[in-house]
Write a sequence for this structure.
């Protein structure tokens, strides 16, 4: 066990799986960096350094720099997965799904079903998401609801370094296509992470706080904000249960329903836009299954229905905050809070 | 490498099988026995078979929406294919794929594809697998003139070249992307495009099995020897519409009849092997007869097969969920 950043945890997971299984290959734009250039090799290790050091260890045959051709290399990774490799492809920013989504949702996701159960596609797509970097509308989105919608894909959102290593390891060992969403604002966040390889099973939520008054279900980086809100509300005598579903597909509906039944109140926190996102999905689940257990209407804390703005003044208003979560909790508790 | 008598008989058998299969599907679709969208390959047989005669199970192909011919040429079971097209449980994909998604990975057939230009990136992946695991295999994308204008295709040319992949792009140009003439929709030429990416590109008469076989041999040999990707521009014609039900009003008058009369790939093959005494006319007739009764039997089996049930609806979405 040692202190590692989210970035190091992801790197270590990929490194250990590449060591364990030589069919694991990594590909993406600047995934090592400096390909064909006169300067330093492994110059970048991915645009934010997550894959740094893999190329010197495993060589250019297994750490493949690609041209800026997302359709070609994401599709290539799908084809390679269906024929015997276990590729980990980096789609640098999830916003770039627009130029390659066909290869993900029409090809990789559907092979198994369309081909009558005869295809095995152990593909991992790593991608960066989320606002807070002043990166504006085309480099800041949270598009995991779009992927969650597609049968055949699994979707994981690690909320800290421990989760990042475990979910990445699990993704590489999984035989179905998995998309891992890495929040760009969390790469430097550190915590104790085991040195040995470990997987975290998909579809098993993590309950990070236990309380009596309100259940907070939060996704990805929002789990940390929900934890902060829960800790701060304690001072007012309000205790919250916080659920990190870890994966949106499969979704641990059991833990969500159980914890909401216990508290009778639900606030869902999702950094995605408010329409057809995880917050609406969880709200629908709860109202359909345990409506009679609810003591108050469900409350959603999400980004607004507008593109991610550039100006720091506007972006700060755009992103869900601890203050907004606390306000939502007080609102579902009603007068006197 | 030369074609011996057995090879020639096998090539003719596969071409006849495709023709007979497609003619049968055409009739059965018209009779209302086949659901969905169907795109037939009749007329183009020499391309699929001329290429696939060189391939083994370790070699992969990706196909198109017009995929029946590629499937048969690559060794997919025709009976399973027919049942699939009828939407039956015993179909090659359990009735979940249908005409546009027939696949058999054990034969290296990575699927027909409902998305125009869907296959070339996948073939880069299959080629990468062959290269990385050193299987000695090659990977071939069949694509149409329509797909040749998709970004996925051009990106794949580039990726295959810079990674020196054992990939081959077979552009089957039947003159029409749906109803739009390739003479209008394709800027430049297919072979010049190949040249632009620094890979060998050659144009071939797709009615001539022997011509296709020869250029495919060269391209596949280069790929197996680690000399990278190639492009083959196959000029050919389809006998039926873009899809079944297409009235084909966009083609010139007598266009298809003229091709059938002068350039039919089965007739050309037959003339060539009989004139040069490579095979006897009787041998060819025997193949035609046995293929015909086999396809009749495939259709009868498909027709009487059982349909999938509700228990099948949710299986095979994931290995584990």
């Amino acid at each position: 066990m040692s202190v590692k950043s989210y970035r190091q945890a992801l790197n270590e997971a990929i490194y250990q799986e590449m060591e364990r299984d030589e069919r694991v290959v990594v590909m993406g734009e600047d995934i090592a960096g400096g390909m064909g250039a006169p300067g330093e090799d492994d110059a970048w290790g991915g645009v934010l350094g997550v894959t740094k050091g893999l190329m010197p260890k495993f060589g250019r045959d297994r750490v493949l720099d690609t041209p800026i051709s997302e359709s070609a290399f994401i599709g290539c990774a799908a084809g390679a997965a269906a024929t015997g490799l276990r590729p980990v492809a980096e789609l640098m920013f999830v916003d770039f799904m627009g130029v390659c989504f066909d290869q993900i949702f029409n090809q990789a996701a559907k092979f198994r079903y369309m081909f009558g159960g005869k295809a095995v596609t152990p593909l991992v797509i790593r991608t960066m998401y989320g606002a807070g970097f002043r990166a504006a509308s085309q480099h800041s989105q949270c598009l995991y609801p779009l992927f969650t919608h597609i049968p055949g894909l699994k979707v994981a959102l690690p909320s800290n370094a421990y989760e990042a290593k475990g979910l990445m390891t699990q993704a590489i060992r999984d035989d179905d296509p998995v998309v891992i969403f890495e929040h760009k604002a969390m790469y430097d966040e550190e915590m104790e992470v085991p040195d040995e390889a470990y997987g975290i099973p998909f579809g098993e939520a993590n309950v990070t706080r236990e309380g009596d008054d309100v259940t907070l279900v939060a996704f990805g980086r929002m789990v940390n904000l929900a934890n902060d809100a829960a800790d701060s509300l304690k001072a007012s005598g309000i205790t919250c249960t916080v659920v990190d579903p870890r994966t949106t597909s499969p979704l641990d509906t059991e833990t969500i329903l159980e914890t909401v039944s216990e508290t009778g109140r639900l606030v869902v926190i999702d950094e995605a836009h408010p329409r057809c996102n995880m917050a609406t999905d969880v709200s629908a689940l709860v109202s359909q299954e345990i409506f009679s257990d609810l003591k108050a209407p469900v409350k959603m804390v999400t980004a607004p229905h507008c593109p991610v703005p550039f100006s720091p003044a506007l972006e700060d208003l755009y992103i869900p905050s601890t203050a907004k979560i606390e306000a939502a909790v007080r609102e579902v508790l009603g007068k006197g809070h | 490498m030369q074609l011996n008598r057995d090879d020639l008989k096998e090539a003719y058998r596969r071409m006849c099988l495709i023709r007979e299969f497609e003619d049968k599907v055409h009739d059965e679709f018209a009779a209302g026995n086949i659901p969905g969208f169907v795109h037939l390959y009749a007329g183009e047989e020499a391309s699929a078979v001329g290429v696939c005669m060189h391939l083994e199970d370790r070699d992969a192909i990706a196909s198109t929406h017009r995929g029946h011919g590629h499937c048969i040429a690559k060794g997919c079971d025709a009976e399973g294919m027919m049942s699939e097209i009828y939407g039956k449980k015993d179909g090659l994909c359990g009735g979940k794929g249908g005409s546009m998604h027939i696949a058999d990975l054990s034969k290296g057939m990575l699927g027909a594809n409902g998305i125009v230009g869907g296959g070339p990136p996948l073939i880069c992946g299959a080629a990468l697998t062959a290269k990385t695991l050193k299987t000695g295999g090659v990977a071939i994308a069949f694509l149409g003139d329509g797909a040749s204008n998709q970004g996925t295709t051009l990106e794949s040319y580039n990726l295959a070249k810079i990674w020196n992949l054992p990939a081959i792009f077979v552009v089957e140009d039947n003159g029409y992307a749906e109803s739009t003439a390739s003479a209008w929709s394709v800027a430049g030429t297919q072979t010049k495009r190949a040249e632009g990416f620094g890979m060998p590109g050659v144009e071939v008469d797709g009615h001539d099995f022997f011509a296709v076989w020869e250029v495919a041999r060269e391209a596949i040999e280069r790929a197996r020897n680690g000399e990278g990707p190639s492009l083959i521009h196959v000029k050919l014609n389809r006998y039926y519409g873009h899809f079944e039900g297409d009235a084909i009003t966009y083609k010139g008058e007598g266009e298809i009849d003229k091709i059938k009369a002068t350039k039919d790939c089965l007739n050309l093959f037959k003339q060539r092997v009989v004139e040069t005494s490579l095979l006897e006319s009787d041998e060819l007739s025997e193949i035609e007869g046995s293929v015909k009764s086999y396809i009749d039997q495939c259709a009868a089996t498909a027709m009487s097969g059982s349909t999938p049930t509700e228990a099948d609806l949710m299986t095979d979405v994931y290995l584990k969920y």
